[in-house]
From TrEMBL:
The organism's place on the tree of life at top rank: Bacteria
UniProt record similarity statement: Belongs to the rubredoxin family.
Record keyword ATP-binding present: no
Co-factor(s): Fe(3+)
Electron transport in keyword set: yes
Domain Rubredoxin-like: 40-91
Record keywords: Electron transport, Iron, Metal-binding, Transport
Position of the signal peptide: none
Name recorded for this polypeptide: Rubredoxin
Coiled coil: none
Length: 93
């Protein structure tokens, strides 16, 4: 009985690093999703590749630095090519 308990304990120890890694990846994915939801993500026009950076805002539209993409007015269009907000996709880093 004691031997069996020790063996199962060792098996758990062996698996622990893998489980922790899996949880870390899920946590990182969660954080990335939360950042997108909070509007911290840069958004890129899929037509001309203009990037809207919330940290910089958009001078052409009098958008203050620190304004998330989700807070832009509905009439906002790409300052370079005139595409609507729906043409923007999350920018890859
Ligand atoms: Zn554009």
């Amino acid at each position: 009985m004691t031997d069996a308990n020790e063996k199962s304990g060792q098996a758990e120890k062996c698996n622990a690093p893998n489980l922790a890694q899996g949880r870390d990846i899920l946590r990182l994915l969660d954080e990335a999703a939360n950042e997108r939801a909070a509007g911290a993500a840069r958004m890129q026009c899929r037509v001309c590749w203009y990037i809207y950076d919330p940290e910089e805002g958009c001078p052409a539209w009098d958008i203050e630095p620190g304004t998330p993409f989700s807070a832009l007015p509905e009439e906002f269009t790409c300052p370079d090519c005139g595409q609507p907000k729906s043409a923007f996709l999350p920018a890859e880093d």
